[in-house]
């Protein structure tokens, strides 16, 4: 395969603009975007007439080769990325979760896991405890390792959950480093309480998962995280927004001018909780993830929030456990490993649910699936755009052809799929990653080892103007009130 490519005659879509043009690629980089580019016959030409040519998807939220202690997700950096590329996603940001040890050890562990990568990737880092060492390591991660975001779990009591004191310490540290604070927003104490109650009532099946952690539990933690971030005056990113309750807290904060980002995920937009009541345990257990998939109505509200700008980008939280692993919780929903698939399905689902239905334009689609993620994590316009100088991560979507989702044909190692049987309009026919055609004619051509680690620099646009707000606050503080000494 030559290292030059011409994508010919398609509608090139960026987040702010679309035009009919050719895209010329050399050595993995977009060189020009213009109508009627002439090339020699040694250049591979891909016809895109009548199709959309868009930046490859960036999935801001994945868990590949995630070891939860008693087991690990079935998708590693090879199978998970194969699935991603077959579904038009050309970069993902995975969570380094340093379960027993230092951030450095965690980072090195994930560096090894990611060696087989065939697409570009970045890392978020999870903070699970607080001491001087963690604080120092955070600094090292930002200054030397290309990490600009840290996730804090307000749930998973006794495992990952941190308290408000740590949350405040973490937020302050993030602010000083120019790193983005992210939260898993569920009240872990309330979840624990809810779980005990379900078990006492004899509700041990997957429906107990939803019943034990209702939307109010997510709304409370979202509100608390937002207010603490406001108190510290640092930007906040709320991962996997699953409910109207959480979304409305984000809407309110944004309206007041606070820098809060809300990330709904594919399952929250496309599914409803009724699956958790399915009489077949294996089917119901597939849908167990946290926060839970909600009642119908939440899905539509999250879609509307995306279309009106209340929420800014879509992730997946791809965290794949097969039916044998899920069966660990056959007698107790608390033991079902949490997580659903989505890395392969997100781009198709968002197109079908949001564009095909008329809720957003193709430009909005590009923004929600790629550009905004690149901006938030400070790698735009290297990623998230079809512009001269940008990485050649490109998809071709045919709006007139259809996709169908099934565990029988997907590329994940999962034996199940939460979107089994779902079909829709708009198929991603070609994926180009780093200038290589990796997905064409329903076939993958992968080169393990060609994916690169993308360093993400601190102080994204979200930090603009924060110092001004700090200065105004400091100026507003009055000198101590002088009081006359009183006797006895
Ligand atoms: O259920 C979920 N979401 N599993 C993945 C870990 C997380 O909380 O993101
Ligand atoms: Zn233009
Ligand atoms: Zn989470
Ligand atoms: Zn997650």
Automatic annotation (TrEMBL):
Alphabetized CDD domains for the sequence: D-HYD
Q: Output the superkingdom of the source species.
A: Eukaryota
In terms of InterPro entries, this protein maps to:
Amidohydro-rel (IPR006680), Hydantoinase/dihydroPyrase (IPR011778), Metal-dep_hydrolase_composite (IPR011059), Metal_Hydrolase (IPR032466), Metallo-dep_Hydrolases_sf (IPR050378)
Keyword list (alphabetical) reads: Hydrolase, Metal-binding, Zinc
One GO location term (cellular component): cytosol
Positions of post-translational N6-carboxylysine modification: 151
Instruction: Give a short account of its post-translational modification.
Output: Carbamylation allows a single lysine to coordinate two divalent metal cations.
Indicate the segments forming the Amidohydrolase-related domain, all copies.
Answer: 52-438
Cofactor(s) needed for function: Zn(2+)
Q: Give the UniProt record's GO annotations in the biological process aspect.
A: pyrimidine nucleobase catabolic process
A molecular function (GO) held by this record is: metal ion binding
EC numbers listed for it are 3.5.2.2
Checking SUPFAM superfamilies in the record gives: Composite domain of metallo-dependent hydrolases, Metallo-dependent hydrolases
How would you classify this enzyme at the top EC level?
A: hydrolase
Q: Which reaction does it catalyse?
A: 5,6-dihydrouracil + H2O = 3-(carbamoylamino)propanoate + H(+)
Record note on quaternary structure: Homotetramer.
- Sequence similarity: Belongs to the metallo-dependent hydrolases superfamily. Hydantoinase/dihydropyrimidinase family.
From the Swiss-Prot or TrEMBL record, give the protein name.
Answer: dihydropyrimidinase
Source organism per entry reads Phaseolus vulgaris (Kidney bean)
